[in-house]
Design a protein that fits this description.
Length: 88
């Protein structure tokens, strides 16, 4: 494989043979927390939805199975969302 390593897309199944970014899709990168380095597919999100960030389910955060990791849009860099913390 050439170029940069491919990054996993949040929400892809563990048995998905190709859980990585795909051409023609729009993604934001998660920075920090349990989901660091993963991508969120925001292709069909409205600008308002993208501006609010997200609370994403993760089993690897401080609250274990069913807990959530909160991410907010990085100022001046909307393609990256920073981890705010974990919530139950």
């Amino acid at each position: 494989m050439t170029g940069l390593p491919r990054r996993r897309v949040y929400g892809s199944d563990h048995d998905d043979p190709d859980p990585y970014e795909r051409p023609g899709r729009e993604y934001v990168e998660l920075v920090g927390g349990a989901l660091d380095g993963q991508l969120v597919d925001v292709t069909h999100w409205t600008p308002e939805e993208r501006a609010t960030g997200a609370m994403l389910i993760t089993d690897d955060g401080a609250y274990g199975a069913g807990g959530r990791a909160e991410y907010e849009v990085r100022p001046c860099e909307p393609g990256r969302w920073d981890w705010v913390g974990d919530v139950p």
